[in-house]
Amino acid sequence: MVQETSLEVRDLIWPLFVIDGQNERQAVKTMPGVDRLTVDLAVDAAKQARDLGIPALALFPNTPSDRRSENGEESFNPDNLMCRALSAIKDAVPDIGLIADVALDPYTTHGHDGLLDGERILNDETIDVLIKQSLNQVRAGADIIAPSDMMDGRIGAIREALDNEGHENTILLSYAAKYASAFYGPFRDAVGSGSRLKGDKKTYQLEPFNREEGLREVEQDILEAADWIMVKPGMPYLDMVREIKSRFEVPVFAYQVSGEYAQIMFAAQAGALDQRGAMIESLISFKRAGCSGILTYFALEMAKELNG
Ligand code: PBG
Predict the structure, then answer these.
(1) How far is ligand 1, taken at its centre, from the CA of residue 188, in Å?
(2) 20 to 30 A from 3, CA-CA: which of 65, 101, 189, 261?
(3) CA–centroid distance, residue 91 to ligand 1 (Å)
């Protein structure tokens, strides 16, 4: 029989949560098997990933409470946790790609991705801060900037600011098709934004009923110079992956998000399904749909599996 697609280590991108401190790991209770790591341990994890052939990491900071604020100024502090993690990993493991998320939720006291006026998100004012955050992260060592905030017009604005500073080679991975999802719950716990979040993100993230709207967002971001497109969540939105792949000539990535990971892990712990089998099958489904890469909390385990 003919196997039409394959799953390889180079398809896997590993998200890591970082915390302040030294030589400490904290279990994320809603994500069995996932720990938040201090920067030194994140460096060790990066070495392990590189040795297994994982091409890139996506970093997310759990910003200490006293560094969070209404307007998320910590996001452009050159000495913030994220920047310290980026530069430590870049120094120690220069050959692994570093993806830096762009959005304010790990830095704001209200847990939203942008600036607020009451309950209203301020699109254009937010973009100014996202530009500062992007430049800050690129200067610290990020190779790929991944705006996940869903503000309108941010891709073009960030591209221009990066180019003006000589960062023409920085890749923009746009979370263009990002749906307002219940599957982000464990992530918000991991970065510490969940308990702070007031309301929901439905005014800026996509409505799960909508396909054409997602495709319009993708088209817009490509026109604004996005290099790659991200679909998120992953498995419930594989139709979007396939459709973007056939409509646009752009690499498509998907994020198997925290809730998708938790679903498999807790079901396996309860004896309801085989963890290894479900992991492998879920990751194959992304490749079959047309993904060029998959952000997955299974990256390390799957890479070990593939390395035999
Ligand atoms: C926020 C962001 C989220 C995720 C990545 N970046 C959550 C959200 O939009 O609330 C979710 C990833 C996951 O669930 O694993 N900018």
Answers:
(1) 7
(2) 261
(3) 27
Interacting residues of 44 by C-beta distance below 8 A, sequence separation 6+:
none
**CB environment 185-196: b (16+ within 10 A), e (fewer):** bbbbbbbbbbee
What separation in angstroms does the CA of 161 have from each of 78, 151, 203, 223?
A: 17, 16, 26, 16
User: What is the H or E stretch that residue 31 is in?
Assistant: none
For residue 106, whether the previous peptide bond is cis, meaning omega lies within 30 degrees of 0, is no
Q: Is the dihedral of CA 177, 210, 299, 190 positive or negative?
A: positive
Q: Whose CA is nearest to atom 7 of ligand 1?
A: 184
Contacts of 34 (CB under 8 A, 6+ apart): 17, 27, 28, 190, 261, 297
Q: Is 296 exposed, middle or buried (0-12, 13-18, 19+ CB in 10 A)?
A: buried
Q: How far is 151 from 17, CA to CA, in rounded Å?
A: 24
Whether the predicted pLDDT of 292 surpasses 90: yes
Q: Which residues line ligand 1 (CB under 6 A)?
A: 101, 103, 105, 113, 148-149, 184, 187-188, 201, 257-258
d(CA 279, CA 282): 5
State the amino acid at position 98 in one-letter form: L
Q: Which of 85, 12, 10 is nearest to 43 (CA)?
A: 85
pTM here is: 0.97
